[in-house]
Amino acid sequence: MSDTKKGFPLPSSLEVVPGTEQAQAAYPYYTHFVPEDDSKFWFYNSMHFPEPMHHFDMITAEAAYVAMGAFNTRVHVLPTAKGIEHRVINGRVFIGGVAVTDPAEIEERIGEFQKRAFYYYENWEDLYAQWKDKMKALIADAQALPTPSLPDYEPIETTHTGKGVAASHDLLVIYQKQIEGYHRMWHHHFEFLLLGYGAYMTFFDFCKKAFPEISDQAISRMVAGMEAEIFRPDEEVKRLARSAVELGVDAHFVDNADIEKVLTDLDALGEKGQAWLAELETSRNPWFNVSSGDGFYHYHRSWNDDLSLPFAAFPGYIEKIKAGMNLERPTAQLIEEREQLVIDYRELLDTEEDKATYDQLISLAHRVFPYVEGHKFYCEHWYTNLFFNKIREFGRLLLAHGFFGDDGVEEDVFHLTQYELESAIIDLMLAWGIGAEARGPKHWPALVAQRRAAIEEWGKHDCPPALGAVPDAIDDPAINMLWGITRENLDKWLDDGTENEKELKGFAACSGVVEGTARVVKSVAEMGRIQQGDILVCQVTNPTWSPIFQKIGAAVSDIGGSMSHMAIVAREYGLPAVVGTGKATKLIKDGMRIRVDGGRGTVTILDDLDADAEKLLEEV
Q: Which residues form the PEP-utilising enzyme mobile domain (predicted)?
């Protein structure tokens, strides 16, 4: 960095990749950077959106930030943080928090927050039970939506029953219910999540003041050893591996197996093979309703849609079972360590008043914390996967009516924005009702091809981790805990490498020192390259990658804080990890030998840097 004053590029300095201007312009107007955005701080949300966003997939950002803003600002009324603004350029989603800085407004909001949040804290278990019922009902409603279709003629029953509504109207009803349900899901998602972060952050702040030398990791270990639904899919994979061994059909599960052939062979095997297939069906509903990603991209299919990820895990699990190794998460050990830490630090407090406060805060953190991961199974995975599959049904309908051309596929629907898709549906409704040709078949194929090319091109270009003015402080609990964006961490991101060009610093997510070969994975599709003992280096990971944790020795991420999903999962599996390094995937080359110190939060490059890596250091 040549400028002596360290800082991130301004949003106005970013240029749209040449040749993709029309694809960029197609994103909704309110997601584009404007001149006044130069005065704000933004960061690239690579945790949730590590790949360029298809135009329809932007609903996963929009609906989330609509709901998060409403609950932050208007429902729970967080004292110092309102919502999150988002922008998209070259398919990359940047976000920035809206802080409350006026002391009088903060004071007013504290009063509102206490009335609202404390009610939830006092009635957490009952309200959370209601929440699960709401989510299951929402999932059932989405599943019950009929497949959109258009008959040649309206059924005679419409006339004979006086229904008075033609079949074409159902298309609009189904689509609008899909969109409304997805937005509603995100409202349910944020009903509890920010309160969970808030409870933990209150305990975190108390510990930092009471025990000045305490590490972030020590505090996070005081809430480790949780049970949450998001871990259940991996438990089911282990259960199926045990079943394969017990039934004597384990020889069918090998690396890179043809999954359909394995299923066919097991069925033909007779009683034992069919018994295993029955166990598979038991696991699939509902536990395989998790996507291979984090639930924000239509092409990160669920395990039910694509069994590749669980089947890739079976050989390793079976080998360990036959060797008598323990596959379980070290939950009992984590709980024992957790309870001892809680006792040890409590004894350091001087007054009974402080001990009472400490007891109250840690008790609340333990009550609310399972939701911080558990909600993901219902929201980002089960519901979102169902939602995308229902949108695919409209893709099939439009494809059948020529909207995507002769070479089109149903997946082309995701190159339309949510608003464009509704207009295409109405175009089809008009054509069906009028008896004329729709405009879509001449309008959409060229635009879809243009946007498909833009997504591919954007994927070839990196983007800065942050933009704009560096804030003096960042007080949003979600930004701190989930993304790991703190003032101190931003300074690390801005480090030009002059202090120690071979050491990266981040959050100490889970202790342990491991040396090994770096495997830089930039998308879900690359997970197959991971070999036993590799150190996973990625922008971000998520709980549904858990089956590959049996292979890797440690994990490193660009983004994430002490309460990020990767940090939580690493602790629950006892996997040494460092998160929030800012630039690991840029500076660490695939195949390099590195050392991960999960206790200190450092990653050391042991190989000499080659010329390409040296050049990257100069550019960051």
A: 530-601
